[in-house]
Amino acid sequence: MADEQLVRLARGYRVGTGYTDWRGRTVEVPRDTIVAVLAALGVDAATPAAVRAELARLEERGRTRPLPPVVVCWADERSGAGRIAVPARPAPGAEALLIRADGGTSRLPPAGRRRTSGPDPVDHDLYLLPEGTPPGLHRLRLRRNGREEETALLVAPARLKEAPRAWGLMAQLYSVRSRASWGMGDLRDLADLAAWGAEALGADFVLVNPLHAAEPVPPVNPSPYSPMSRRFAAPLYLRIEDLPEYAALGPADRERVEALAAPLRRKARTLREIDRDRIWRAKLAALEICHRQRRGTRQQDDYERFKKREGEALTAFATWCALAEEHGPDWRCWPAALQDPAAPAVAAERRRLAGRIDFHTWLQWRLDEQLAEAQSAARRAGMRIGIVHDLAVGVAHGGADTWIHRAVFAAGMSVGAPPDEFNQRGQDWGQPPWHPRRLAEAEYRPYRGMLAAALRHGGGLRLDHAMQISRLWWVPEGRSPAEGTYVGYDREAMLACLVLEAARTGAVVIGEDLGTVEPEVRADLAARGVLGTDLLWFERDEHGRPRPPGAWREPALATVGTHDMPPITGFLHGDHVVLRARLGLLTRPAPEEAADHRAALAAWLALLADQGLLTTRPEEILRALAGGSTAHDEEVVTALHAFLARTPARLLGIALTDAVGERRIQNQPGTGDEHPNWRIPLADAQGRPVLLDDLPTARIRALLAPVLQRSPDSASR
After folding, report:
1. Helix/strand/coil for 587
2. CB 667 within 8 A of CB 563
3. pLDDT-based confidence at residue 642 (cuts at 50, 70, 90)
4. What are phi and psi of 28, to 5 degrees?
5. Which CATH number is associated with domain 66-157?
6. Is the pLDDT reported for residue 716 higher than 60?
7. Residues 6+ apart with CB under 8 A from 204
8. How are beta strands 427-431 and 413-417 bridged, if at all?
9. Which residues, at least 6 apart from 441, have a Cβ–Cβ distance to it below 8 Å?
């Protein structure tokens, strides 16, 4: 148990000393965890004397109240006017100057003083932002008490535009294979899936897994949520035949490329696991053949413009890729001279590896084009939103992002989650968290660049683990996930970055706010026009009963399940309980877990019956399920989607796995090779492979009829 002074110090740095778990119980954080987390933040709490000294420094900052690294101003959408709040000092008479991004300056008139609410109220001086100030990053200069201070001023729209009332498909793109793709879904398959969803079903969006960059050489981590970089994309998703360079190949080179593709296409007609290593080796060989083709003047000009737009970030990423090919994808294991991107040895390697660096730069250029084409195809087919990309919560410890932006990540820590209902031992995702202070001192540039890239070629963005804008569960290396604690971030600044970048493209933003999310986080997201996520199996009232459709949230994406849970039919049959018991992931006896599952399922079936959505009595369905019968699976799947259609949620998400009858779990958190996570190709209820070319349109239309009828403006297209 932590002492009072350590608790005060931890609170000053937004480090949690206790939390409320998924059962509503208060859990105290171990003292060793608090000390380790503070150390990662650069705060010495190893001894009582050190704690006292750090408290004194913290209190001194409280008295002097320096300007924070970034000040946020929420501007009116129409006028651009707003109020700027800065920590106040006792002496009046401060002068404020706005230095716009274009170099223009304006005096800022004072607008009074405001005190924040909460346990530690702080007075803020207010200044008026001039009308017409464009959103973006400006500078704020303040002269007070004879001193001049300057800081970044982030001006963001007060609210995103309202999302349309619509529905769409959710898919793990790698699992959606076609006859033409190389053993896994690619960006052409994404474009075709979006066009089919719009034209055949009236869908308005396709939400896909993260397409972030993976390892440049095998082995490739199959998890799309453990990338090497969130700023760049994975060339695994390129459609080789759509490259302009492929069209220019001679007969011999084309024959070589076809020989690489043919065995992968044949395997795609089976249920064998997706083999990213084999696919990437084949694609890499084909891409190298294509890269050797000469570019015309117009293409070269386009390439140069792309490189100029992406700037040093692209060069640094391509350099990491080239070095990783020789030294492995974990830069922490590289020679010491190469572990700093600014080191002279890295500059020398850039010259030596110029050809490979150009290759990886070219890959990102072609990815940018195919991502743009996928969104264009979706919109041409009639989708109002189009592709909704998924932003993972973190990156690999030794990946490109941590090499490029090493200073803004906290060493010795991993992001995860405390124990919850479906992961009762907690989770350690093996990803370093942002360092809150250093990220702010960098004016959130790495974060904003990542968001801008994710939003460039889509109509929406899903923020995996939406709490990442407010707090993350930090797990000290060597400790179990249950021994972690929450560390807070400047939520207003993180949210302002998100809203600013989304507003530039008019995108819809969805926050995955499941689990133990602070109510104020949900309120702040909603206030800024960011949708939440309502997951049917988790929607219960204060008494633990299933929540009727009219009580669901309106500003949200409503779904039945998520990629971390079994598809509907797998859930009905309790496959997840059996799997977790076999893998030792439960913290209580399997019969108890199974009994709870049956009780929860019975409650949902009863509510579906009360809503008039079932033709079979719940008791009969439960008896059939207990006997292993699948006779009522489709009836329940249809009823659950009809239930979603009765909620007020602005967006409905329908999993492609549920639409085709897939039963297998795509991902079981807390496992590695014990379960084939992220490697399961799409199949139907009979266990037969389902290719994109053969999607059963009539059956899916019948299954989703209530959803299609919910939004007449999209269903009638």
Report:
1. coil
2. yes
3. very high
4. -85, 140
5. 2.60.40
6. no
7. 164, 166, 167, 168, 198, 383, 384, 385, 711, 714
8. antiparallel
9. 69
Which ranges in the chain are annotated with CATH 2.60.40?
66-157
Give the number of residues written for the chain. 717
pLDDT digits (tens, 9 = 90+) for 576-607: 999 989 988 888 899 999 999 999 999 999 99
Whether residue 350 contacts residue 422, with contact meaning beta carbons closer than 8 Å, is answered with no
Assign residue 360 a region: left if phi > 0, alpha if psi is -120 to 50, beta otherwise? alpha
Q: Where are the beta strands (DSSP E) in 397-503?
A: 413-417, 427-431, 460-463, 471-476, 485-488
Contact 228, 220 (CB under 8 A): no
Q: Report long-range pairs for 596-605 (Cβ below 8 Å, ≥24 apart).
A: 598/574, 598/622, 598/626, 600/537, 601/571, 601/572, 601/625, 603/545, 603/546, 604/536, 604/537, 604/546, 605/636
CB 651 within 8 A of CB 629: no
| pLDDT value of position 516 | 73
Exposed e or buried b per residue across 371-398, where buried means at least 16 C-beta atoms within 10 angstroms of its C-beta: bebbbebbbebbbbbbbbbbbbbbbbbb
Closest by CA to 16, choosing from 473, 450, 664, 603, is 473
Query: Is residue 714 very low, low, confident or very high in pLDDT (cuts 50, 70, 90)?
Result: very low
| DSSP string of 355-366, one letter each residue | HHHHHHHHHHHH
CB of 162 within 8 A of CB of 705? no
Q: Tell me what the pLDDT averaged over the chain comes to.
A: 94
Report the alpha-carbon distance of residue 320 to residue 333 in Å, rounded. Answer: 13
Phi, psi angles (nearest 5°) of residue 531: -75, 150
Q: What phi and psi, each to the nearest 5 degrees, are found at residue 199?
A: -80, -35
pLDDT of residue 61: 86
pLDDT tens by residue, 263-316: 999 998 999 999 999 999 999 999 999 999 999 999 999 999 999 999 999 999
Residue 179 clears pLDDT 70, i.e. is over it: yes
Cβ atoms 690, 177 nearer than 8 A: no
pLDDT of residue 365: 98
Rg, the chain, Cα only: 26
pLDDT at res. 422: 64
Cα 493 to Cα 66, 88, 270, 447: the distances in Å are 17, 19, 48, 11
Of 240-254, 370-384, 667-681, the least confident: 667-681
Residue with tokens 């994975």: 234
Is residue 438 pLDDT above 70, yes or no?
yes
- DSSP per residue over 624-685, as a string? HHHTT--TTHHHHHHHHHHHHHHS--SEEEEEHHHHHT--S-S--TT-STTTTTT-PPPB-T
Tell me which residue has tokens 């020789």.
326
Q: Give the separation between CA 498 and CA 463, rounded to whole angstroms.
A: 10
- The encoded tokens of residue 197 equal 């969803």
Q: How far is CA 306 from the centre of its chain?
A: 25
Q: Which helix (H) or strand (E) holds 154?
A: strand 147-157
pTM of the model: 0.95
Q: Which two tokens stand for residue 234?
A: 């994975």
